[in-house]
Design a protein that fits this description.
Layout: E1 2-6, H1 11-23, E2 25-26, E3 29-30, E4 33-38, E5 51-55, H2 61-67, E6 74-77, H3 83-88, H4 90-109, E7 116-122, H5 145-162, E8 167-173, E9 175-176, H6 190-199, E10 204-205, E11 213-217, H7 219-231, E12 242-244, E13 248-251, H8 252-263, H9 266-269, E14 271-272, H10 277-283, H11 293-297, H12 306-316
Amino acid sequence: MNILIIGGAGFLGQKLAHQLAQRGQLRGQSIARLILADIHPPTVPKAPFPVASISCDIANPADVAQAMPADVDVIFLLAAIVSAHAEQDFDAGLAINLMGVLNVLQQARALARCPVVVFTSSIAAYGGEVPDPIFDHSFLNPQTSYGTQKAMGELLINDFSRKGFVDGRGLRLPTITVRPGAPNRAASGFMSGIFREPLAGVPANCPVAPDYRHYYLSPRKCVENLVKGAELPSEALGQNRCMMMPGRDWSIAQMIAAMTAVAGPKPAQLISWQPQPEVQAIVGSWRHDIRPQKALALGLEADDSFEDNIRHYLADDAPQP
C-alpha cells in the first residue's frame, strides 16, 4: 500500500501522517511507503515504513507529476487556499483550489491503476437560497469563492470517478477546532483562536455574537474520518461520491461554556467581543443545520460534545508548561 498526502505539511496532513504511521496499514494492507507533499517539504513522522517529503506546488502540473508515483494506491488531497485568502486573492484560489485539484486528478488519471482519492471539501459549498436543514441531497449554492471552488472540485471528483479514472470520495469538512499553532487566513480562524489563545493565557477577540451557530468537529475525529473515508468500499458510495463529514451544531456561547466546564472560568474572561464585518460577511453565509445521514450510516462519527473537543486539544496539541 503506497500513500500520497498532498497538503502533508498542514496541520491535518501532519496529524494524518502520524495516524497512518501508528496504524501501519490502510484498506486491509500494510503500508509500504508514505509520501508527504506540500509547497514546502513537510516534516516526516517516525514510521515502520519509508516516508518521503517532497516540495510540490499543485498549481504546477510538472510538480504534481513528480510527486505522484506510478504505484500510488491512495491519495489524500488536502491542499487548499483557505477561505478568506481565496476571497481576497481570487486568482490564487482558482490556481490551487480548482486548477490544482484538476492537475492532481489528471495525473491520477494517467496512472496505470485507479487510485483511491480522498478530497477534502468544505461546508462553505452550502449556502444561499437552500432551506434548512441541509440534507445529503440539498444542492450546493456557495456564496464565497472558496466554497465555489470546493464545489467545483466535488464535481470533478464525481465525474473522474464516473469515468473510472479514480475511485474518488469527497468529504465536506466542518470547521475543525481547536486547531493548534499560529492563526491562518481562514475566515473561521477565530473559532479556534477564541479557545487556543485563552487556554494559553493570551487574550483573543470573537468577531461574531455569542449566539452565532456553526458546525464543528475536532481534529482527532476529522483524521479518524479521513481514514474511514479512504477505507469505504466503492460500491457503498453511490452516484454522488461527496458527502458531509459528521459534526455538531453549537453556538459560540455553548462552546465557551464547554471550555469553562473543562478548564475553569479564567480562559473565557480573556475573550473580547469586537465585531469584524469582513469576517461576518463570509461566515454569515455558512450553514450550520446539517444532517449527514449518509456519512453516519457509513460509520463516520462526530464528537459527543464540545467538552471533548477541548479535552482533545489539551491532550494532543496544547503547549505543555
